[in-house]
Each structure stands twice: as structure tokens, then as C-alpha cells.
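Same chain as my last thread, 129 residues:
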Amino acid sequence: MTSSDQLDHALCVLVADDDELVRMLIVDALTEAGFRVIEADHGEEALCILCSQAEGVDALFTDINMLGSVDGLELARRARSKLPRLAVVIGSGGGRPPPDALPPSSRFLPKPYHVSDIPDCIRELITQT
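reply #2:
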């Protein structure tokens, strides 16, 4: 991909959250900010998406507490091991996880957060990697 292709390439964010309303709000904020967005309603689905579309995903936004066998922290760890340069933002209303539970260079957003802050947070992490 040439540098001009990279400028034309809309950054892609995978959003994983089992709360449909919250997910829709995040997707809307990211779409309005110019991101391409892929949605997953649980961790297992997000992992399947990453396996099939890994090269096209630039960032992951996930909630910690989701239904199913893969929570947001496990999703973030597995996603980062597959894609070391992936920007990872983890949100939760259930309290701050211990620092060693988060993948390196990821960002934690405690609820209530403003969905309008998420695009800037993701851009900042992408420029750091």
C-alpha cells in the first residue's frame, strides 16, 4: 500500500459490545468521525472477525463484561497477540481492572464515558503505534 493509499484508507474499528444500544452509539460516533466500523455482539464473534479480516482492522473497542466465554480483556489479549500493532480501547462500568490485566499500550475508559471521546482516543493510540 502506497502512502497515498494509506491516506485514502478509512481506519477500521472493530466494536465488540453485547449491549446493542451502547454498541449503536459507539458505532454512530465512529462512523461520523470517518471510521469504517465492524460490529460484534460478543467476544467469540469478534475473534472470528479478526481471524477472517485481521489485515483490515486497525483498532478494537470492547466492553469488558460481555456474554459468552470470551470477555473483553481476553478478547483484547488475543487480538493484540494476533495483531501486535492493533490499537485497543477497553471500556467498562464495572470498575477499573488491574493495570497488568490490560494489554500494553491500550487505553481503559471507565463508564460513564462520552462516546464522542472514543474516536480521538483511537486516533491517538493509532498514531502511537
